[in-house]
Amino acid sequence: MSDVATIRSTSGTGVIRVLKADEQHLLRDHLLRLEPESRHDRFNGGISEEFLRSYAARSFENGAIVIAYLQDGVVRGAAELHGPEQSLDGEPEIAFSVETRIRRQGVGSALFEQLLEEAQRKGYTRLRITTGGQNEAMKALANKFGAHLSFRRGEATGTVDLSRSAALVTKPAPRATAPLSVVMARDVMRANQAMWGHVLRFYAGLLDGSQRMGTR
Ligand SMILES: CC(C)(COP(=O)(O)OP(=O)(O)OC[C@H]1O[C@@H](n2cnc3c(N)ncnc32)[C@H](O)[C@@H]1OP(=O)(O)O)[C@@H](O)C(=O)NCCC(=O)NCCS
Questions:
Q1: In percent, how much of the chain has pLDDT > 70?
Q2: Cα distance between the two ends of the chain
Q3: With CB atoms counted within 10 Å of each terminal CB, which end of the chain scores lower, N or C?
Q4: Mean pLDDT of the chain
């Protein structure tokens, strides 16, 4: 995959693309930059630097697909797709991480969209996310794509049902845009307003003319 999207954030412009086999160090350095709370949300536990180093290397060795958001060649966000052969129950697993200073600017959404496309291309129907049930950011991100994360008490696993996400991937909902039905209704209302405006002005003109004629 060459660059698939360009995103502007407060800290600059970046691109989204799949990392190549010899770029595992870029993922490693990104994960090492995550502060403890983010590491906890990402891996659902306290994680050491040593673990992160071997995790990045292992992910690439095992054939994970890593879609990254890069600014000036530095990975600032990543979406990982780990194949079903890597999990005990045969379900592919996904994970997301965006560095704190560029969060809530659409990077996670852009990564999610690309990852779902990749997963659909591979024919996966369900994906698993492991995180805490209190992770509001991840829940909001998944919801945005029609993916429901369900967490049973004490469990840290959510499932993304791709059949529910498909429509949104092929046609993502634009931010803060009214639904089409609302747009159409609004346009009809404006047309009506314009038409009645003309009619009223016409009759007002007639009335005004006849009054002026009457005062002569
Ligand atoms: C989850 C994460 C990847 C989201 O990345 P992001 O770049 O901030 O995501 P976006 O900016 O695209 O936001 C997506 C949606 O979630 C919402 N959102 C983001 N953070 C939120 C939060 N803390 N609380 C509530 N909603 C939140 C946004 O408002 C946005 O919704 P909108 O488009 O309708 O406004 C990021 O918070 C992160 O890296 N967290 C730490 C690691 C982690 O928890 N990974 C998930 C487990 S694998």
A1: 71
A2: 81
A3: C
A4: 79
So what's the pLDDT on residue 166?
Answer: 57
φ and ψ at residue 55, rounded to 5 degrees: -65, -45
3-state class of 131 per DSSP? coil
| Cα(69)–Cα(15) distance, integer angstroms | 6
Distance of CA 154 to the CA centre of its chain: 26
CATH for 5-170 is: 3.40.630.30
Provide the pLDDT confidence category of residue 110 given band limits of 50, 70 and 90.
very high
Ligand 1 centroid–CA 34 distance in Å is 15
Taking alpha carbons only, the member of 66, 181, 81, 60 closest to residue 126 is 81
The ranges assigned to domains in the chain are 5-170, 178-216
Ligand 1 neighbours by CB, cut-off 6 Å: 38, 41-42, 95-98, 103-109, 129, 131, 135-138, 140-141, 144, 175
